[in-house]
Amino acid sequence: MSLATHARNGVNRALRPLGVQVTHGRSTDPAIQPFLSARRTIAGANRAGLPLGEYIDRYSAEPGSTAVAVEAMLRLCDFGDQVSRICEIGPGSGRYAEPVIAALHPDAYEIYETAPDWIRYLQSLPNLVTRPADGHTLAATGSETIDLVHSHKLFTYVPFVTTVGYLEEMARVVRPGGIVAFDIITEDCMDEQATRTWVSENAAIYMVTPRAWTIDLLADRGLTLLGQHFEPLSGGRTELLVFRKQPSS
Questions:
Q1: pLDDT tens digits for range 69-96
Q2: Which domains does the chain have, with CATH numbers?
Q3: What is the pTM of this model?
Q4: 114 φ, ψ to 5°?
Q5: DSSP 8-state assignment for residue 62
């Protein structure tokens, strides 16, 4: 059994209560193949009589956790009420995109998403700009053009080298004074209970990214950590880190 197949089977075991399953995206790269089926997930939310974001929260984290995470990110950003350009990597169901757009009213909301069915679902988002996604880069976005570039519940699943590449790209596209925000599983997330839970469930889907190393990497690219916020994840938690890019000297 391949690593990708093993990971996909692990995700499906964890998500079986939702009535959803992991399927293939349009890429053959094993680092970016898994994603939730839009049709099955939306159908599950409809059967449960819940908004889609609340449905996913309830079964993969805690009720209301997306809203709390977005509020924490925006508080640390301190943008005021509007920015011009936002970019999100892996928006999926749009459960983070919707409250961010509602709060900041960007002129353009760029997305890099590899799942065709979720791209179709996201077309109703205002001022949406769909970028071609290769699962590794933000190649279609110019350097220092983005006010806020963010990603949620993505770097927790993809291989470390993929996360590193995206961090480099986020540092490239954000403008001086702009914000980079993402959540990862750091060593600070790994208490004994989480470790026991993930071992007992054979949760090989989760990827740990060193916190100090991440902060140092982005510091070398002119980004300063503004703050953090812990977010619940099935059986454990992730750490949302928010950075500001310093003006060029």
A1: 999 999 999 887 679 999 999 999 999 9
A2: 62-245 (3.40.50.150)
A3: 0.84
A4: -95, -10
A5: -
